[in-house]
């Protein structure tokens, strides 16, 4: 597996909790790798061990940590490019949600060798949706839950989210359920083609 997720866990731990905590995670995981490179391959067990060590240090479940990582990917200044990529999906939370069907292909255009989950959005009504996560490893559903929670806040939408897991043989099926109660509940954070750092 490419180190993008490993790197996300590392940046999350360092940015939110500091280098001292990351030092403890690295020691507990036992792989003697302090820095992960996003586009280098690493064994899958590295990801499992780092996630378990991080969960242990934070006294949270792996699912809770992954949800926090999802929110971090949208809300932290270091990850502004991720937020901007997602905001290109639409001018409202509903438009953004429906655009997730195409996210996998959009990312593939820029990073063709990167393995990312495929998302399948189903609209059950004008306010009720579900997002099916298709990936060879369980866990991304929790990351998506955190991303959607943060993006709803970004758009100013009031939503209720729930992660459902079911088993199909040895495969774990993850689906995020979305209920949109109010599209303009709070102020939208705003989005423009030019960032404040580059505006003149």
TrEMBL record:
GO MF entries: guanylate cyclase activity; heme binding
One Pfam short name: HNOB
Q: Which cellular component appears as one GO term in the record?
A: guanylate cyclase complex, soluble
The record's listing under InterPro entries reads: H-NOX_domain_sf (IPR038158), Heme_NO-bd (IPR011644), NO_sig/Golgi_transp_ligand-bd (IPR024096)
Q: Name one GO biological process term.
A: cGMP-mediated signaling
Gene3D superfamilies tied to this protein: H-NOX domain (3.90.1520.10)
Domain (Heme NO-binding) spans 2-156
User: Sorted alphabetically, which PANTHER family does this protein's record hold?
Assistant: GUANYLATE CYCLASE SOLUBLE SUBUNIT BETA-2, SOLUBLE GUANYLATE CYCLASE GCY-32-RELATED
Q: What is this protein called?
A: Heme-NO-binding protein
Q: Which organism is it from?
A: Litoreibacter meonggei
């Amino acid at each position: 597996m490419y180190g993008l997720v490993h790197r996300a866990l590392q940046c999350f731990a360092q940015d939110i909790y500091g280098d001292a905590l990351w030092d403890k995670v690295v020691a507990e995981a036992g792989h003697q790798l302090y820095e992960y490179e996003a586009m280098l391959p690493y064994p899958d067990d590295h990801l499992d061990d780092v996630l378990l060590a991080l969960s242990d240090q934070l006294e949270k479940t792996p699912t809770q940590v992954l949800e926090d990582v999802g929110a971090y990917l949208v809300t932290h200044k270091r990850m502004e490019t991720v937020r901007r990529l997602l905001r290109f999906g639409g001018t409202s939370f509903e438009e953004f949600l429906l655009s997730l069907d195409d996210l996998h292909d959009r990312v593939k255009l820029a990073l063709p060798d990167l393995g990312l989950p495929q998302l399948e959005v189903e609209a059950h009504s004008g306010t009720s949706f579900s997002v099916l996560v298709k990936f060879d490893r369980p866990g991304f559903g929790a990351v998506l839950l955190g991303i959607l929670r943060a993006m709803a806040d970004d758009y100013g939408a009031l939503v209720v989210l729930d992660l459902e897991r079911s088993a199909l043989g040895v495969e774990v099926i993850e689906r995020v359920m979305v209920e949109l109660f109010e599209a303009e509940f709070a102020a939208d954070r705003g989005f423009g083609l030019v960032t404040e750092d580059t505006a003149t």
